[in-house]
Each structure stands twice: as C-alpha cells, then as structure tokens.
Amino acid sequence: MISIYILTHNEEIDIAACIESALLSDDVIVVDSFSTDRTIEIASRYPVRVVQHEFESHGKQRTWMLEAIPTKYEWVYILEADERMTPELFRECLKASQSQEFIGYYVAERVMFMGTWIRRSTQYPRYQMRLFEKGKVWFGDYGHTEREVCDGPTGFLKETYPHYTCSKGLSRWIEKHNRYSTDEAKETLRQLKNGKIDWYSLLLGKSEVERRRALKDLSLRLPFRPLLRWFYMYFMLGGILDGRAGFAWCTLQAFYEYLILLKVREMQQASHDGLSLENSVTSFEISSFSKLSELVSGDRSSSQRR
Length: 306
Fold this sequence. Notes:
The protein has 11 helices and 10 strands.
C-alpha cells in the first residue's frame, strides 16, 4: 500500500473529487495552506487527515510535509487538488512500490482543458515525480514550481493521471499565472546570470524530463520567445490537431510567456534604477486578463449555443 498527500489552497471546487479518487489508499493526508474557502470543511467529511501549514513555496511545502508529517507507509504519492488518482494508476503504483529497482517514479499528466484532453501541444507525455520512497526524494524551488532531488535511480510509470488545469475557471487560471510569471521572471534572471545550457541533455538526454528542462533553459535565451513558443506548440507539436481548445491553450501559453518577458524587463529596469528586485514588480492589472477570459468564455458559450 502507499500513502497519498493532497496539496490544497482554496480548492473547494476540486477537493471532493480529488479525495474520492485517492481513497483507494487507506492513508490520505490533505496538506492545506490555510484555505479561506470551504476546502477544510469539505475535506473533513472524508476519512482523511488534514494538516495545515503556511505556504512559502512549492518546493518548501513539499519538503516540509515529507519531513514533518508521518505516513502509514514508506512509499508516498503526491496529488494536487485539480488532479485525480485512477484505479489503473493506483494498481501500477502498488506494484512499483514493491520493487527495489527504483526509489521513485515519474508519472505523465493528461492536461484537460475546455472539456478535452490537450494531447499534443502539452508535450505529452510530460512527466512529474509523483511516487517515491520517503527519505529518498526532496524538492527545491525552480521558478514558480519545484524540482526534485533524488537519492537513487528513478523510473517511469506507464499509467497517467488527469490534470484539470482550468477547473476553477479561466479567470482563476489567469490570476494564478500572473503570480507564477513573477517567480518565473526572477528565475529567468538568475539563469541568465548564473545558469548554462545543458547541450548534452538537450540533444542526448535519456528521458523526457532531462530534455524538457534543458529545452527550457535554452528557451530563456531565445529572442521572440512568446511567438516562438506559440509556433512550436501549435505547429511543431501538433496543437493544430487539438482543435479550438488546442488553439486557445497555445495562445494562453504564449501570453504567459510574454508576461514573463515583460516582468523580466521591468526587473532589469528596476535593477538599473537601483530598486530592490523583490519590490520592483508591481502587480499587473488583471483587467486585461479578465477581458481575455471573457473573450474565450464568450466564444465557448456561443459555440455551445450553436
């Protein structure tokens, strides 16, 4: 058997379905970042443990929960509230946890957006470290997200999990990525100053994870990043075959890339003017984002009426 962590913050829309999918395990722990909505109330209806901890960053939150929260089993799986465990994936996790070949496993996500699976333009299969033996994997921060540090060999599972990336609505997605873009802009500046391109991993990397991360480090140094990303996702990855949802997804990702680029330039200007990096990025007005949300939502509604 394995234990399952569920990371939450204001997840009243998703938490019930997420917990119900995770109850294949008899040891489910909800790690909440002091939600202000009904997340805790809903989670408390289920036979799970609920632990709250102030959120600092994705990497620190994961490291804290692994160190501070005891689990019933040595092998653990990390779920986020807008993701689901499946019976097929759970069975494969149980089998993998009994093997002594690897200390952790990467699992591929299936991004669900506008009611459909965005298979091509999301670089599927796109793997994340989700199943591992406690004490053998830790997490550090990288941009708005985290990267794992593994003390031993790792493998890849065949089964996948659905990720309902826009389950809370497009406005919430855009607001979240406005925050993410600030962290990504800071990471971009750090990488441009101290990082380097791992050409070996980019060209000859043994796994999708190595190649994808090397490609990201390269992309930070390319001109016209937003346009290039859209072209790469829509045409080279085949987003055009994902239909209208694929076009919307590629456009949102290019918009997100452009937002990062704008904040990088703002930070560079602030540094030139002698201002603090932490205080240089003002929160962009969400009005333009809301208009984009209304545009996409309105377009989707009109298509449904037709």
